[in-house]
Design goal:
With 55 residues, this protein is mainly alpha-helical. Helices cover 73% and strands 0% of the residues. The protein contains three helices and no strands. It has helices at 11-25, 28-31, 34-54. Helix 1 packs antiparallel against helix 3. The radius of gyration is 12 Å and the shape is globular. The model has no long low-confidence stretch (mean pLDDT 85).
C-alpha cells in the first residue's frame, strides 16, 4: 500500500466518497482549477471501477 492509498474501506465509505466527488463536479467551473477538475474525474472513474468490481 502506498502513501496515497487508504486502508480497508467499506462500501458505504466508497459511496460517500463518490457522492462527494459528484457534488464537487456538479459545477466544475466553480472549482476554478483545471487540474483539480481532472483529478476529480479520474477519482470518479476509479470509484466507479471499484464498485463495478465488487458487484
Amino acid at each position: 500500500m502506498d502513501a496515497n492509498t487508504p486502508g480497508p474501506t467499506t462500501p458505504d465509505f466508497r459511496t460517500a466518497r463518490l457522492l462527494a466527488v459528484e457534488v464537487l463536479l456538479a459545477d466544475p467551473e466553480a472549482l476554478a482549477d483545471d487540474v483539480l477538475e481532472s483529478c476529480l474525474y479520474i477519482l470518479r472513474d476509479r470509484l466507479h471501477g471499484i464498485e463495478n468490481e465488487d458487484g
